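quick one
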Amino acid sequence: MPRRTPGDARRRTLSQNFLHDQQVVADIVATLHPPPGALVLDLGAGAGALTRAVAAGGNRVLAVELDPRWVGVLRSRAPAWGDVTVVAGDALHVPFPAERFLVVSNAPYAIGTKLVRRLLTDAHGLTRAVVVLQREAALRLAGGGRFAASWAPWFELTVHRRVPARAFRPVPSVDGAMLTVVPRAQPLLSPAAYPRYDAFLTAAFSGRGNTLARRLNVRPSALAALGLPRDATPGAVPPEVYARVFTALE
Ligand SMILES: C[S@@+](CC[C@H](N)C(=O)[O-])C[C@H]1O[C@@H](n2cnc3c(N)ncnc32)[C@H](O)[C@@H]1O
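structure w/ S-adenosylmethionine:
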């Protein structure tokens, strides 16, 4: 059995699997498509695969990295890449800029859900984010559950391509996926509606009965009038449709 080194331990804790597949890097940057000159945060920049590709497109990049060893590497390489500022810090706590910005991130899968939650709650200047997550986590966040329904009136969460484990070095044990987080230009509900909407979702996702109609205590015909199957179950309703059902039933 090969001997373990301190470097192995650090790689495991910080999940240092770096993007190696240049086609995946190109797809991530194409999906981000930052406008010229826009500010892009690369959260968990590692050796800079994404930082370098974004900077090559003429964008300003703030590369945030927790591991001092990779901060040093980034600082030595970044001057050759373009307008890159390296920030030694934690992606879950580093202050976000006051101006508008985009986010690209392939951070450890273990912090992926927390990172997305932070983008949804704290990133007021965010215009678009592309985050690589463990595939199951990406599908859970964007799919037919309460999390996606809670955020859908204000954000579009979309799962794009699979990022196969073999796109990384070293190769991790699970596949990833690209998730985009985009604030809606026209929100489907006002922020003031949130407490009532949240109570409505509690009924929809935790009430008694199997069907949405039973849980919301409405006639199946009321859902049919909104274009939903009479026997729709909560998980089968697309997240963005909940705002419409809420508005119609309120
Ligand atoms: C999976 S690697 C990917 C690196 C690079 N983004 C890429 O695609 O090749 C994740 C990187 O995030 C760093 N990292 C881990 N936890 C972090 C945190 N809380 N904040 C910022 N960076 C973190 C790790 O040290 C590592 O360099």
